[in-house]
Structures are given as structure tokens and as C-alpha cells.
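Retry 2 of 3 after timeout on previous attempt. Resubmitting C-alpha cells to design endpoint.
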């Protein structure tokens, strides 16, 4: 659980004008963000009373927030452990990357057809930013997420975008970024450059192929880390 000293960073729920709904949203956003940043790692037990005290809330909005997160799959109720941040096993990680390869490959294909020159140029700028973040894996991870989020929007398909955004919620459960692994940051940056080049060439087949290869490479690195941790 996060330590109580982190509480001042969270606006007090007792502030004038806050409703029960906004208090529930505050609790939801706090826990969700903590999961995404890794402050609440997979397997961390979530206790209503501790979160309520941390946030200066009653237990009701915290309970509502945890129920919402459970429905979204970020939190699970395990027998004997109570509510914990969801842990992904090897099978689940494999399924996640299979779907990511299919969906992101499709997004790249559509982006090669439908993205405007301005959008492709923006994606190029994001990819180029990787070179300035060498040796900063956490910042690279943020830029990496921004790159992929931008690629999704370049596809101009609202249903694909919604599905990919949902998939990204599950990606938060994978744990620390693999960009800390020697060589992976350089490889990932190079792959991003190749993806953008395919979009600039307006080549849907090439864009999809390179993007699929990028996701497969990321999966191999992730799987290697998981196996070494066994």
C-alpha cells in the first residue's frame, strides 16, 4: 500500500462543494493512476480503510472506486487475499500481446491510408524525441506510450481506438518498463523510426508488417524477463 506521506499530493475530499460522485471519482483516479505508474504493483493488496484514510474519504466512495476498477479488470478479489491489483500470468501476457499485435498492426495499416501529413509529421517528432531521452527509461516509457496513442488516433477508426485504449489499461498490469533492459531502448527507437517511415511512404502492407514485428519484439523481451524471474 502507498504510504500515508503521499496523501498531501491528493486533493482533500472534504473540500467545499465536492459531491459523493466526485469523491468516488477522486478515489478511482488515484488508485488507477497508482496502478499505471507502478506505485501499486501487481499483487498489491488494497484495503478500503487504508485508502480511505490516505485520501481523507469515507469508505463508501473508496468501495465504489474499487468496484469500478474490478469491473475493468485492474483489480481482482482473490480468496484469502481480498482485493489486489491484478497479476497477469504467462498465458494472459501472451494473449495480451497477440491482441496487441493484431490491433496495432491494423492501426498502422489504416494510418498509412488515412493519416494526414500533419499527423504523420507529429508522429515523426515523437519518434525523434527518443534520441533525446537516452538513458532515461521512465521518460522513454512515457514517450513510447504517447507514440502508440498517437498512432491509434492516426488510424481514424473510433471503434479500433476504443478497443486499443481498453487494451492499454491491461498493459499497465505488466509491471516495470522493459526499456531498462540493455539494448531494448535502442531497438524500440529504431523500430519506431521504421514504422513512421512506412507511414510516410503510404505503404499499408509495410506499415502493418513493421508494427507487428515491433510488438513481437516487445513481447519476446517481456517474456524473457518473466522467465528469468521464475
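Retry 2 succeeded. Sequence:
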Amino acid at each position: 500500500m502507498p504510504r500515508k506521506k503521499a496523501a498531501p499530493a491528493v486533493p482533500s475530499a472534504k473540500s467545499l462543494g465536492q459531491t459523493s460522485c466526485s469523491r468516488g471519482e477522486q478515489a478511482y483516479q488515484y488508485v488507477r493512476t497508482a496502478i499505471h505508474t507502478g506505485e501499486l504493483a501487481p499483487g498489491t493488496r488494497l484495503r478500503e480503510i487504508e485508502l480511505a484514510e490516505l485520501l481523507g474519504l469515507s469508505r463508501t466512495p473508496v468501495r465504489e472506486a474499487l468496484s469500478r476498477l474490478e469491473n475493468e479488470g485492474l483489480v481482482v478479489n482473490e480468496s484469502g487475499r481480498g482485493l489486489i491489483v491484478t497479476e497477469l500470468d504467462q498465458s494472459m501476457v501472451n494473449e495480451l500481446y497477440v491482441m496487441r499485435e493484431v490491433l496495432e498492426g491494423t492501426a498502422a495499416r489504416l494510418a498509412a491510408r488515412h493519416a494526414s501529413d500533419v499527423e504523420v509529421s507529429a508522429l515523426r517528432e515523437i519518434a525523434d524525441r527518443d534520441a533525446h531521452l537516452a538513458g532515461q527509461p521512465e521518460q522513454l516509457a512515457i514517450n513510447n506510450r504517447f507514440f502508440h496513442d498517437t498512432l491509434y488516433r492516426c488510424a481514424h477508426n473510433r471503434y479500433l481506438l476504443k478497443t486499443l485504449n481498453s487494451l492499454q489499461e491491461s498493459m499497465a498490469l505488466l509491471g516495470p518498463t522493459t526499456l531498462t533492459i540493455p539494448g531494448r531502448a535502442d531497438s524500440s527507437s529504431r523500430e519506431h523510426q521504421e514504422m513512421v517511415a512506412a507511414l510516410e511512404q503510404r505503404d499499408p502492407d509495410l506499415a502493418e508488417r513493421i508494427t507487428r514485428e515491433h510488438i513481437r519484439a516487445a513481447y519476446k523481451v517481456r517474456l524473457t524477463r518473466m522467465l528469468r524471474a521464475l
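Attempt log closed. The CA atoms of residues 74 and 169 lie 8 Å apart.
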